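Researcher: Structure for this, please.
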Amino acid sequence: MPEMPDYRTALVTGASRGVGAEIVRSLVAEGLDVWALARASDELDALAAETGCRAVAVDLNDDAATDAALTGLEIDVLVNNAGLISAVKPFVELTGAEADAMLNLNLRAPLRVTSKLLPGMISRRCGHIFAITSIFGPYSGPNMAVYCATKAAIRSFCACLRMDIAGTGIRVTEIAPGRTETGIYLDAFGGDQQALDDRLFTNYRTLQPQDVAQALIGAIRLPARADASIIELSPTDQAAGGMVFAERDA
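Model: Predicted structure, token format:
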């Protein structure tokens, strides 16, 4: 039997719903002690009651609160999942606040969280860092210039990080999903769930959050000698790059 990494603890950001919550459920099912981070304390409490994870209500845009939440933790599996699409519009129409919101949560936050937890992984020579990005990282999409830029930047960060930590035994995996039925798009639709469903989900066979979680668990279960460095996970009906998506059969 191949040697498996001895992972005991995990931390998931953006854990209260959607992909993050499914990843928490899957990691708990694998026997890991999971810290679940998000701003929504009620949803976190419900997830903790369901799974036994450790709920930590924190705003990743608050540096002091984030540092306090992470101090002293020995985390083997880090899942940088928290993300935001604040608006879908041409760059020239994007407000500074909309751009900053995506830059802070999609790019700055995962870099900060990783910087806090990576030294412990290196000292223990044990760790697996995941970045949940998007198919719009390696490919382009109209009206999403800043969002695409943040996801492309995380892909580059992961590639450089693998070089920096080569030989430490720590794995780095980027999972870049195509269209996934989650609430990440809701802000861009003004909170109108029906409009979101009609535009992106109802007529399409999209990925579900558990599909992303399953891909992550597959990467963890690889023998310690192997790292699934990039997983591009697309709906079967969505062509590479995401710009062609066949509707469901009538």
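Researcher: Any notable elements?
Model: Residues 59 and 242 are 30 Å apart (CA to CA). The chain has a mean pLDDT of 93.
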